[in-house]
User: Fold these one by one.
Assistant:
Number 1:
Amino acid sequence: MEIGANNMALAVTNLGAEIKARTELRVNQHTPEAVVSDIIANSKELLREAGLTPEMLLGVGVNVPGLVDSEGGIVEKAVNLGWESVPLRELLQPHFGVPVAVIDKGDGGALGEKLFGVGQGCSDFIFITIGTGIGAGVMYRDVLFTGARNAAGEFGHISVDPSGRRCLCGNVGCLEHYCSAQAIVRMVQENCPPGSILAGREDLTAYDVYLAALENDAFAAQVFDQVGTVLGKACVTLIHLFNPRKLVFGGGVSQAGDLLLAPIRKAVKEFAMASSRYDVEVVQAGLGPDSGLVGAAALVIDDFLSTF
Ligand SMILES: [Zn+2]
């Protein structure tokens, strides 16, 4: 399962991490108790639809945005959910009766892409997820680079504007305030010219901005160009730090494809040092928006297979 600030996705997969049944729901209440209760109710329904019983499950993998202590199954901090020190495994395990593995969104996506997506056969790549927030998972020599306290990969919270607005994480000018789905909507609301087809639109989403760009709305295309350029410059920092072979983009906003990736490639080409940008590929996730879901399943499958 994948928990987000606005939506949640639950899926049943086989041992090859192929999704056999899935459901998506809105996250209306963010308290851990409300989210867990939604998970329990919808899991039962999903298993019934898939013709399975809870006893047939090998395990449950959960993908969560933010800082996660995977060993303890604890969500240390998820700013977009308002969670701090939530013992998610402890809350879920009694309801399922099988092992529950918890991983952060960036790492989960990187694992999914490594085992089943465009990261297959690639020892060094960085998965970047762009949705309500921004996160990253660093695959370094075939192993997830998690840092001293599992806090590595908080790409959305590097500062790209030292005089920018204060973020809930404590830093100022964080990348995700300029490049997330929410940022795209805010940019349109603040700067939309009367000539754009987005002018005066209410309940706007980043997907609407994408559709407008596809309809050749110049302002919508310019928003994606601006977002891609800021992201690209931030990616140059990642390239200089880790010298990856690939930058793999997942999450909802990345579904915009070349509208977003073209300005990223341009910024990388223009600003990264020659030796480190050599051979860096900027690509869309092979698993589309499902990298995180598949990664959560992969965590369980990997654990299970390693017992043989
Ligand atoms: Zn931040």
Note: The mean pLDDT is 93.
Number 2:
Amino acid sequence: MKKKHKIALGVTVSVVVALSITAGIFYFTQPTWFTRTIVNSQIESAPGYPEIDDGLHALLVGTGSPINDPSRAGPSVLVIAGEKHFVVDTGPGSTASLVTSGISPAEVDAVFLTHYHSDHIGDLGELMLQRWALGGSNESLPVYGPVNVTSIVDGFNDAYYLDSIYRNEHHGEENMPINGSGGVAMEFDIGNGTMASQVIYDQDNVEVTMFNVDHFPVYPAVGFKFEYKGRSLVISGDTVYSENLETQSTNVDLLIGEALNPELVAIMEESDDLGDENAGVVLHDIPDYHITPWEMATLAENANVEYLVYYHMIPPVPNSGVAKKVFLGNSSVIYSGDIDIGMDGFFISMPAHSEKIITTNLLERSAARPALVLIVNLVILGLMFGAGRLITKKRELKVKPIIMVYSILMGFLILTRIGSFVTTGFAASTLIYALVEATMLVWSVFYLNQNIKSRDKTNLKSKNKQSVVAA
Ligand SMILES: [Zn+2]
Ligand SMILES: [Zn+2]
């Protein structure tokens, strides 16, 4: 190694060691600053309330079904109509998903339940509790639903009664007034007519219609239609093909519809790896009270729906293009409008008195996307290799491969740190790693550059010698 390089290496190592020691001393003498920075960065990196125009909007809070899917909470849709926030169904895990999407449970004005299968009501207690605890409301949460909603709400109120007493005593009547805890049932009996429907909410330009669907033997089972300033959407609830659902969906802007793919369920049923004793029986029984994706597409086409989005998918659909295509079958051929498979955090915005439909995903920023980070890193890695080869060829040099690989590795690590800042937010420790790696990268590039220059000189010298000999 040349003297110059030895000096460069010595300086770099000293800088890195000095940086590490300073960071170490700082970490141990200023632990509060570190903790504060970490906690604050976590708070700041959480998604905020979406910026929206006055209109009718839907956030798919949970797009799962009773079949476990780690990437989807149980069925739940947040409908924002002007200033009002309504939650339709509260599937298990949906309250956490709501918060992760940037919506506080304190914002929720009312809940609407489609039916009383556990996957639609599992989180009702959590939502009621968190809405009260975070917002300090002195009025219980209204829970709209068909016959028997009273017993559901009473049951959750009972189960959470002690908790609300604890919190009221601990945080005080002023912050958590006991009258605001729990829910209050708003029960509507629309009978069992297959075409029955009733407007059950009509305030502040918002109209909500409850209508029967067919989820036999589950009764009651309803869907909901929301209308606000010229925009409309329907949430199907659980159903087979239902004429009432088709009628209610006529000319709506958006249909959020459930779907079960019987072919995929049959494949699951045949699998020997189901594990639980009753899993096969359950899988065998479920297709007869759910609609298929292509039936839902037919219904949407017949009803002249503008935009069809699936939720409550059975079986769970992985978030890949091929899997989605397999799940949909020929649905996009049958239905001429726009079609999408929903995922948690999917936000559909429909500004008032317009035809615009804008979609975004509120969870994209906070969700770690390791696959994407990896792909980006691999592309950069490829580019670096390419650049390395180009330099080597041009200069007709053999660049020391170990230094080459080293700088690539450093570049890779720095990119991973940047990826981590972007996906999971700022962290002081990651910044320190990144600084160290950046220093090492600068050194290795400097080393390579020196190496190339010195070889150039050597080449030049030997060329000169040759020309002297020739002369
Ligand atoms: Zn369900
Ligand atoms: Zn159901």
Note: The CA atoms of residues 54 and 82 lie 5 Å apart.
Number 3:
Amino acid sequence: MGSGIALACAQKGFTTYLYDNNENTLQKSYTSILSNLNKLKEKGKFSDQEHNEIVGRLHVSTSLKSFSSCTLVIEAAIEDLNIKKEIFENLEQNIVSEDCILASNTSSLSITSIASACKNSNRFIGIHFFNPATLMPLVEVIPGIETDKETLRLAIQWIEELGKVSVTAKDTPGFIVNRVARPFYSESIKIYEEGIASFAQIDEALKEIGKFKMGPFELMDFIGNDINYTVTETVWRQFFYDPRFKPSFTQKRMVEAKRLGRKSGKGYYDYLKEQTEPTETLSKATAHQLVDRVLLLLFNEAADAVFMNIASKDDIDTAMIKGTNYPKGLLKWSDEYGIKNIVDRLDLLYDRYHDDRYRVCPLLRDMAQSQQNFFS
Ligand SMILES: NC(=O)c1ccc[n+]([C@@H]2O[C@H](COP(=O)([O-])OP(=O)(O)OC[C@H]3O[C@@H](n4cnc5c(N)ncnc54)[C@H](O)[C@@H]3O)[C@@H](O)[C@H]2O)c1
């Protein structure tokens, strides 16, 4: 992630320093950045001169000392609270100026907890990119409890200068995207575990009927089952084990078997096989039912993010379109689907399973009673 963020910055004209405490990794990252840039140049994305300017702006460094003139530092080190805190303690006490903004790209740690390593936690903020950072337009901005308004304003302004779209989220597990998207994976896995359909049939139904660009199993294989599982487990633990976010045995076994997805050659699908086996077609009714189940849980989660003031309605819809390529914002989609319809169907699922994952968000129930929509 660090090298992607650095390249995005250098491409937009910012003088950028990239550091990793592992010199080998740093060298490999730099080589891969240069090779990506060359490919882009060959494709005609920019001229020789622009290429040279980008390379000239990007400095790799084996010492954090080179960050002394920076006005913003974005940390994308390994996802470990103590390591992140050590980095910021060192940066603040020994290296950066007093007005340098300090930011973390963490996906799952609390911004407030990392900020606590700083004497001045007012200037600390979460700036969360999506992978690959050079291509994905969304950046989540997460103020911690102590972050001041000026830091938030400057972070949003900088993201705009970077040519990206920012959304602001409360410092809660998964922020917006990694919280609201959980049921896309978990409910699809549950449908598979109940024997209703195969991985390929579920992917097919969600693409055909739901109009998602990728099915959940393809997407988990693309992200890496290890990464996706860790996010799920972390979000669940950080929500004090709310059963709504419970991980699945199916994905845990995938990780245990090192079926990590595309990067290991095998995940839910086998990427080493030349030909894929033909998928048996599901009945229309079953395909629609399973898509409905996944959508209902996504609608409920997006509504809960509004209910708990995680972000504004507009930011929640923008985040799911720009951060995960969903075909529509989930709140707008909920309006179209019908709020009462969502509540009634979720209640039916709850009556059947008595599982908290189907617990209706109180906001949806209130809205259904008063016949309200999110956007009209
Ligand atoms: N991978 C993603 O899709 C993704 C997306 C958004 C955010 N993130 C977040 O970005 C961060 C990095 O994730 P990643 O997937 O790139 O991890 P990664 O393991 O690929 O890279 C982490 C890098 O940190 C380096 N490192 C470890 N200790 C360090 C230290 N003390 N100082 C400097 N560098 C150190 C490692 O050498 C490694 O190169 C995490 O906080 C993660 O939550 C990842």
Note: The chain has two domains: 2-171, 177-376.
